[in-house]
Amino acid sequence: MTASRIRFTVRSVEAIKPPPCGQKDYWDANLPGFGVRVSAAGRRSWVVMYRSGGIKRRLTLGTYPATSLAAAREQAADALRAVAHGGDPATSKKSAREAETFAELSDEYLERYAKARKRSWKKDEKAIERDLT
Question: How far apart are the first and last CA of the chain?
Fold first, then answer.
């Protein structure tokens, strides 16, 4: 996997040809650490590389064209600012993605929706306890 440095524009990102196999990283000449990873299938993913606690980390920001160049560059700059202030964006992203347990979700459903909107919320509560926990 080799890396190249280019000046990112919409046109330059679209012009990148997929490698014959594997993936290839291209780095932005204007924002160090910000790049696009192109797969053999042609998928383009925005990434930012940084070091946290001496460990090299990669944070995926989204895919192109679903995430525009401008939005990805802004996200990368935000992530690099967070790193400069001692944060770790990849760890933050992972913890935000972790799902709550079913018990927590069912309690939230009962409190926020069923009890407020349904007279039969006790039936929902019993069904959850009987069938789902």
Answer: 47
Sheet holding 34-39, edge to edge: 3-6, 23-28, 34-39, 44-52, 55-64
Candidate ranges 35-39, 48-52, 97-101; pick with highest mean pLDDT:
35-39
The reported pLDDT for the residue numbered 96 is 65
Assign 101 to helix, strand or coil.
Answer: coil
Burial classification of residue 108, based on how many CB atoms lie within 10 Å of its CB (0-12 exposed, 13-18 middle, 19 or more buried): exposed
> CATH number of the domain at 3-97, out of 3.90.1150.10, 2.60.120.10, 3.30.160.390, 3.50.50.60?
3.30.160.390
Is residue 63 within 8 A of residue 43, CB to CB? The reply is yes
How, if at all, do strands 44-52 and 3-6 pair?
A: unpaired
Is 69:75 a contact under the CB 8 Å cutoff?
A: no
Beta-strand pair 44-52/34-39: antiparallel
